Amino acid sequence: MTGSEKLEEDDVPPETTTEDLLRLGDIASGSEQPPAAQPEAPVVFDVRDLSVFYGSFRAVRNVDFEIHQHQVTAFIGPSGCGKTTVLRSFNRMHDLTEGARVEGTLNYHGIDLYGADVNAVEVRRRIGMVFQKPNPFPKSIYDNVAYGPKLAGAKRSELDDIVQRSLEQAALWDEVKDRLKKSALGLSGGQQQRLCIARTVAVEPEVILMDEPCSALDPIATGRIEDLMDEIKAQYTIIIVTHNMQQAARVSDRCAFFTTEVNEQSDTRTGILVEFDATEKMFSNPSDERTENYVTGRFG
Ligand SMILES: Nc1ncnc2c1ncn2[C@@H]1O[C@H](COP(=O)(O)OP(=O)(O)OP(=O)(O)O)[C@@H](O)[C@H]1O
Ligand SMILES: [Mg+2]
Question: How many Å lie between the centroid of ligand 1 and the Cα of residue 38?
Answer without folding.
Answer: 32
